[in-house]
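debug: dumping io for the single-chain case to check the tokenizer round-trip. Nothing else runs in this session.
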Amino acid sequence: MAREQLQVLSALDLARTQLYHFTAIGAQKPGTLPPSVSAAVNGVALCGTLAGQLFFGWLGDKMGRKSVYGITLILMVVCSVASGLSFGNERKGVMATLCFFRFWLGFGIGGDYPLSATIMSEYANKKTRGAFIAAVFAMQGFGILAGGIVSLVVSAAFDHRFNAPSYEKTQLAPL
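debug: decoded output
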């Protein structure tokens, strides 16, 4: 039996990439965004993160890390709320405002990355510095996990209360 499994795995290792592989990746589920829209929403956040790292890293050196860190926190909170309240008369407008706020959210998150670790290393003593810096980066994982759980709970509650149609079926009325 083990030999048969190894033969199957060997055949998969030698197989050419075919159209099937790409259609399996792009399979749509009801209630999901089209791949191009999903890529835009995620891509603008990553571009904002890169720009935020460069800008807030530089600004933290000029103005002081603690005060600039406060600015990044305010920016993240405001843009997180604004992302959830994206507005528009039609789907493209809603997605455009979502992408706008996601860019600025990414910009704030990008500033948080270099500043949080640097502040922690500057204010921790020699004995606990490594553990505190590890905790800073570990909290990012916990935050991602908590954010996913909150999103699932809010989405389930919204769907239960309003039974909203998927993105593709939505027809917004003009104001």
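debug: round-trip ok. The mean pLDDT is 83.
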